[in-house]
Amino acid sequence: MYLDTIETMYLRRKERGFTLIELLVVIAIIGLLSSVVLASLSSARERARDARRSGDLKQLQIAFELYYDSNAQYPCDPSNTRVERMNTGCSNITPYISPIPKDPTNTGSNGYRYRISNVNGRESYTLLVKLDKNEGSWCSLSVSPGHTQWINSYPPCDF
User: Fold this and answer.
1) Alpha-carbon torsion, ordered 81, 143, 58, 158, to 10 deg
2) How far is it, in rounded angstroms, from Cα 51 to Cα 138?
């Protein structure tokens, strides 16, 4: 009789739940899996922000070309050698693009920038952007009138 009650108590305690070791193993596995998922999500977010920047630069290129078609010059005096911020540039390009795109993470002086230049009597412009994959270094993309592709890129801006 006494032995029967000990076996019953043992079986009841066994049916109650998990042991501490079992719980720790499950928690460790969940932690490991969540860290792997978060690491892959971080790189996916960086690629998504860079893809948005690529789209923004293409829209800005179209706006600059539309401005050039209407005004026979780009939206800044080519003798001005300063690098301008997109939101406080020389001329208002909002009739051609509204609102002016803003970098997803870099704001203020680290947002999109541009510079107008005049080489051999031909105006051109350079757009500057910081890509996540280039670890925050500026990426410059230059375009001349009539060209629909980026003709210069340093460091390489493989969108």
Assistant:
1) -100
2) 16
Tokens 């925050």, residue located: 136
CA distance 77 to 67: 13
| Coil vs helix vs strand at 139 | strand
Please give the Cα distance from 4 to 149 (Å, whole number).
86
**C-alpha–C-alpha distance, residues 2 and 155, integer Å:** 82
Tokens 């999500």 label which residue? 41
Tokens of 95: 């009739």
Least confident range of 15-24, 129-138, 147-156: 147-156
Instruction: Fill in the amino acid letter for 16.
Output: R
| Alpha-carbon span 108 to 121, nearest angstrom | 32
Q: What is 20-68 written as a DSSP string?
A: HHHHHHHHHHHHHHHHHHHHHHHHHHHHHHHHHHHHHHHHHHHHHHHHH
pLDDT tens track for 71-108: 888 887 666 666 777 766 666 788 888 888 888 887 76
